[in-house]
Specification:
Blueprint: E1 6-12, H1 21-24, E2 27-32, E3 46-48, E4 60-66, E5 77-81, E6 84-88, E7 92-99, H2 112-134, E8 138-147, E9 152-153, E10 156-157, H3 158-172, E11 183-189, E12 195-202, E13 207-209, E14 234-239, E15 242-250, E16 253-254, E17 257-258, H4 264-285, E18 295-301, H5 307-315, E19 321-328, E20 338-345
Parallel strand pairs: 2-3, 8-11, 18-19
Antiparallel strand pairs: 1-4, 2-4, 5-6, 6-7, 7-12, 8-12, 9-10, 13-14, 14-15, 15-20, 16-17, 18-20
This protein binds 3-(2-carboxyethyl)benzoic acid.
3-(2-carboxyethyl)benzoic acid (3EB) binds next to strand 11 and strand 15.
Length: about 350
Amino acid sequence: MRAARLRHELLPQAGLADRPAGWWRGVLGVVSFVESPTVPSADLPTAVCGTAPLEETDELCEVWRIGNGSDEAAPLVARSHGRLDCRSGATLTFGRVSIDERTSRGPGIDGEAAALRAATDGAYRQLFDALHYAGHPHLIRVWNYLPDINGHADGEERYRHFNAARHAAFGRAGRASTQAAPAATAVGCAAGSPLTLFFLAAAEAPLMIENPRQISAYHYPPQYGRHQPLFSRACVLRTAGETHLFISGTASIVGHRSLHPGDVAAQARESLSNIAILVDEAGRRARGEPPIGALRLKVYLRRRADLAAARAEVERHRSIVESVVYLQADICREELLVEIEAYARADA
Ligand code: 3EB
């Protein structure tokens, strides 16, 4: 089976449902920020992040799809595992799982912290099952949307409970190796909404990238929680002769410390410096590959009022930026006001 090309499109939600069947044939999944997208088939994975767009643009969505080449005509395979829906092409899988913590309570799972851990555990268990059945064992990129991320349960921040459960789930799946930790985002969504995550997985292993200026998240000292966040700073996926760069949610962290508390402009600048370093690292590690193209950014802001200041910083980098979406989301450390993720494809 030939590897399929991966495509990312940022589109207005309006009119999506009117696209021809031929266009939909290659779609792996659709991500929207607030409104559920209307899609023509019930088994197509759709994810709602619960992060409100901060600009007055059309309601947008992201589409992950397989390229339209003649060798990519094989129909995609849809599967469901519990609360998870996924779709696979020959070499790539996109999936989404969404779990309401309230439904995770049960015998022995009593209280908010246990329910949150059980929901996280269930989500990752279903994710690893999906990878197994799809035959695409390599987790490339995960986006995690955690309700009330900075809230506390049983005396500990909910993000830390999430980290503990994620750590355990990876371990149980035989995936404790930090060398294979996926690129990730973990940001907040509204309290009471479901825990939602979506992901890309592949038949081939990606090249994991760390930031020499930051301690790897999986080596953070215990002051950020007893169980470290299990993600890589970035990864490069080479498939179908093309190169894709996935940069994790990136914040104003140097070493392991948050810098510039209270100053969103300085935090945005620091985050963008970290992203520039990751782009350089990826170029260095994937030498001989075509150069990485322009970045598609998602900028998560804790406070709506910070939009203008953050935008001014991002604008300074516009020569290397193709698109930006600004979204409201709480960030996983109280003092962080902004987190920026990026995706880019190398132009052959
Ligand atoms: C950081 O660098 C900021 O827990 O999966 C960024 C990306 C962050 C992913 C995760 C957390 C995660 O620590 C927070």
